Structures are given as structure tokens and as C-alpha cells.
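Sync notes, pocket subgroup
Present: LS, DG
LS reminded everyone that the earlier model was apo-only. Rerun requested with zinc ion included. Inputs:
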Amino acid sequence: MILALETSCDDTCAAVLERDATLRSNVISSQGVHDRYGGVVPEVASRHHLELVNRVVADALARAQAGLDDVSLVAVTAGPGLVGALLVGLQTAKALAAARRLPLAAVDHLHGHVASTFLAPHALEPPFLCLIASGGHTLLADVRSHSGFEPIGQTLDDAAGEAFDKGARMLGLGYPGGPALERLAREGDRSAFVFPTASAVGGLDFSFAGIKTALLYRLRDLGEPESERRRADLAASYQHAIVEALAIRVERGLRATRHSCLALAGGVAANGVLRERVAGLAETVVVPEPALCTDNAAMIASAARHVDALPYPDYLGLDVYATGERGL
Ligand code: KG4
Ligand code: ZN
């Protein structure tokens, strides 16, 4: 079995996966302490990972009805992400692997999101186009093998999840804003306001800085009582524009790559309106269940099946990385 850890942001995650991609356990401990700051505080996240990681690993093994004796490979996210947060996962993984002289697979977080679609029983086979949309990333991935992908479009500024989070904050909702904004939007009219979809950005790149500013100005123009009264309409219209901006690039990406299969990954893929909007865009559209869209260690274990693991002790000197891709 593969034991995987993921600590790149504010979720402390561990999972146990069988070698044939059958998931045995997937434990996610959301820290829930960042709400009061309106976003993730890196130092707070690192400290919480430290407090939680051993318990989360023990829980993942217990739920899989497995012990360390059953583990033949340890996998861990090496980047991109918050350096302090990543280090907690990497050091824990190194210690667990070294104690048993096990090999260790260092996994790229974005490769992990793509690999969330490789899990049994509905494992997707490349080639396909994958939209990865999360709080830290928004990109289109041309996936032609299990072991990596080619980024063919990405955001020039904010990530889609960031646009959800910042919009939600302006509307007085808590963090993470995506799910809260989606709930509020259900009671609103999506055509009440028009927000930009970054139509000036051609090709396959995304931009979400403009929409955020547009909401800020709209709230200012409406004034407080009217903004308050029309909160649901504002949320629905704002969400509609983000979803359209994503869908337009997905359509272009499908045309450019000629793939007949589309997958969604990353936290924003949990959004019901986005899932509905892209459902008819390709012959096959695959969206993992919400718990596999947001950050989790099952996807890291899944990617590890297609990564060259390092034997003991070669991984002891491994380091984390904050940005960019490695080994793809
Ligand atoms: O993949 P993820 O868990 O972490 C990162 O790697 O960033 O994504 C978290 C992001 C947050 O910005 C959150 O607001 C967004 O995903 N998100 C959603 C929904 N659920 C999570 N955005 C829109 N609608 C949702 N239902
Ligand atoms: Zn992520």
C-alpha cells in the first residue's frame, strides 16, 4: 500500500491507497483557524500541521485497517505551496519512510490534482484536458500520460478560487468563500448584474483581477443598504462571470487540443454551477467527488503510482519548493 501526506496549504491530509488505485482511507483535517484572518496565515498553518500530522497519519492507517508494516511506499507533496507547511509533510514522510527503509515518492501538487482522476473505480485514461482551478492555481493541463502534463494556459493574476474567496469576503461571507458564495448565490438572479469575464485576454490564459475590482466598485456604487438587500443577486452574478470565464477557456482548450475528454480538478471543481456548465462541453466530462477536488492526500498517492520513487537514503536531502513545477 501507499501512504501519502499532503500539507501544502491549510489542510493536513493523509491517505492510504492500494497499488491498484483502490482508496482505503482519505483523512482531511481542515484547520478552521484561518477564518478570522480572512485567509490562510502561513505560520499558523505550519504550526497546526505540526500538531495534527501524526494524528492524521495514525487515523488514515486505522481507517484503512493497516499498519506501517503494510506500507511499501511513502508519498508526499514536495511543492508548490507554503514552504513551512510543505516542510512539515516532507519531514514527516521522510521520517516514516526512513524508519522502515521504504522508498519515498516526491509528488508535485498539481500533478496530484490531475491524478485525482486516476483513482479506481472510475479511473480516467489519458489523453484528456484538465482544468485545475483552486485557491492557488488556475490552469489548463494537456494530459497525455499518467506521469505528467503540459500547462497550455494559466492565470495571469489571481486564481479562480482566490476570486471566489475575495468576492465572498467583500459580500461579508467567511473563509473559504467558494462554498459560502455558492450557497448564497442559489437564492439570487445571475443576470441581475454583469461582471467581466476577462474577454480582453485571448487564447487559453485566465485573468480574475478585473472581476474582483468590478465587484468592489459595484458595492461602492450601490451603497450599503442596497448592497445588503441584493447580496444574493450579486453573488449569483459574480459566480456566473467566474464560471463563464473558466468555461470559455475550457472550450478553447478542447478545440486547440482536440481532446474529447475533459476533467475538472482543484477546489473550485466542487462548484455545482461550474460542474453543470461544463457537463456538455466534451464527449466525456469527469469531475471527481468534492472531497477529491479540494486538497487531499488520495490524489498524492494516486500520482505517486506514476512517479519514480527514490530509494532509502537518497531522499533524505530532498527539499520543498514554493512555486513552479518539478519533474513534469
Ligand atoms: O484545491 P484547494 O482545496 O486548495 C488549493 O490548492 O488552493 O482549493 C481551495 C479553493 C478555495 O479558494 C475555495 O474557495 C474554493 O477552492 N472552493 C470553491 C468551492 N469549494 C471550494 N469555489 C467555488 N465553489 C465551491 N463550491
Ligand atoms: Zn490544491
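DG: The chain has eleven helices and ten strands.
LS: Residues 231-257 form the longest helix (27 residues).
Action: DG to write up.
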